[in-house]
Amino acid sequence: MYKLVKPLFFQMNPEQAHNNVTSGLKVFTKIWGSNAILKSLYAVEDPRLQTTVFGLTFKNPVGLAAGFDKNADYIEQMSKLGFGFIEIGTVTPKPQPGNDKPRMFRLVNDEALINRMGFNNQGADVAAGRLKHLKEKNGVIIGGNIGKNKVTPNEEAVNDYIYCFNSLFDYVDYFVVNVSSPNTPGLRDLQEKEPLKHILNTLQELNMAKASPKPILLKIAPDLTDSQLDDIVEIVQDTKIAGVIATNTTISREGLKSDPNLVKETGGVSGKPLTKRSTEVIKYLSDKSNKAFPIIGVGGIHSAADAIEKLNAGASLVQVYTGFIYQGPGLVAEICKGILKGK
């Protein structure tokens, strides 16, 4: 079905296509019987897929990465497509429009996207309100990906993360600290050892004061050097956060085959060009830490084989986004079936 409509969507601006697809899905799921149709087409239910990671039990290890549902608008709809977990955000304390449009570009020859969205979202309070009134999530785990507002100086960034943490705490199952997007000026500077430890230690202190603390993960860039990855291992162990998401988008343009005018657009690249590097980062972290903490693998997963490669490299869970756009909603079921074949 997706193959029939994909050419139509790919004629549209990528951001407009995203809005049309999500709005259409919302309308479709209000039709009687539609939810049963979606589940029968896309959901793979099997107890062997159940995975327990950082104290949470996922019905399967395939999640929707942050960026697709920034404002917790589509959880009920996306949960019908077979995901084991959905990560909302990136959410910031105050609403912000993000960068000027156009800000997302398809690199079709590379099966990739460039985006410079800039954390466009309606703010932490709006996301929390939607989650509070969520009617049905079909057993799907929900993550909250949190960041800082563009206008917040880096030396005050910790306050933005605190605000988002407090706003979402009652409504998400785990948190992701995003300091790795290339689309907010200066944000990646927070990946340096001292500022990062300050943010994570502060959040962990708040977290451990709660009656039931939530797992906190760190999302990192694929562009870190081995010595920086060594620092990440040390920081995760020192701060005792739950794990790492590897990786965010890349600023590298190496090996891209698409229109040079598109390739030179600023922003982060996601999709197939990231497959190898994100797997390398997963393996490095897993080996270096001796599997001391869980890793969620994301970046360039366009097939069951891609997902299984990341799981074999040391990931406990995987997430998709760009592969989901190129391959369609059947990708989740394909990955789940591929995992079951290996069991």
From TrEMBL:
GO terms for biological process: 'de novo' pyrimidine nucleobase biosynthetic process; 'de novo' UMP biosynthetic process. Residues 49-340 form the Dihydroorotate dehydrogenase catalytic domain. It is a peripheral membrane protein. Binds 1 FMN per subunit. Its cofactor is FMN. Pfam families: DHO_dh (PF01180). GO terms for molecular function: dihydroorotate dehydrogenase (quinone) activity. One of its GO terms (cellular component) is cytoplasm. It catalyses: (S)-dihydroorotate + a quinone = orotate + a quinol. Monomer. Belongs to the dihydroorotate dehydrogenase family. Type 2 subfamily. NCBIfam families: PRK05286.1-2, PRK05286.2-5, pyrD_sub2. This is Dihydroorotate dehydrogenase (quinone).
